[in-house]
Amino acid sequence: MKASRKTAGVENGTLADEAYLAIREWILRGDLALGEPVSSRRLARQLGMSHLPVAQALRRLESEGFLESRPRAGTRVRVPTEKDIMERYEVREALETQSARLFAKRASEAQRRKLSRMAEVLDRMFERAASGELGAEFFFEVHRFHFELHLAIAEGANCQALQELIERNQILTFNWFYDVAAHLEELPAGFHKQLAESLVGGDEAAADEAMRAHVRNGRQDRVKRIEQRSQPGSRSGAWRSSAPAD
Asked: Which domain-ending residue is among 26, 48, 78?
């Protein structure tokens, strides 16, 4: 796991912002896996920073649900419960269906064309990744591009508050589901293209229905994987008391 300030993509932010983005990137990539202990001093050394900005970044990540702390056990990457996941799905469904309805109503022609192109690219990426021969980096990029597609829908909805909520929710669930996925699930041909067609068509009810089905697809399978990872004896099933807390 290498520290990369360039990867963090911060030009004008504070050191705490830089640390936050770098550590979040490690979490999203699974370099810091679910349940893994987090040491602020070790991370500070890896980032070449003092302890203070890293500690500030960790507090921010904990407030956003990426990390969790317990007395005498330290801090670790948060392991979501079944209840956490189901509630997050309920929130996601509410946010994403409203985003789809507003996109159908408000998106510009350029935004509709962009979404159609992205959906076709994403379907091809899923097809290539399904072979399992392209490695972890491509697997990560498929998930990242899927995340970007949903942000493009939120952008076309033309509601800044909704866009910010969707981005926050998407990043957290991206971490949970990317980390536990053993493989990309097989999807019907043109899965994302069909979603895009429903949204660009301008029918709000059709957009709502298509997005609702999209969000619910594979939900139970993902919940089951999280449950398996949370069982005693799994990599993320117990706190590792030997790791330093800070």
From this structure: 78
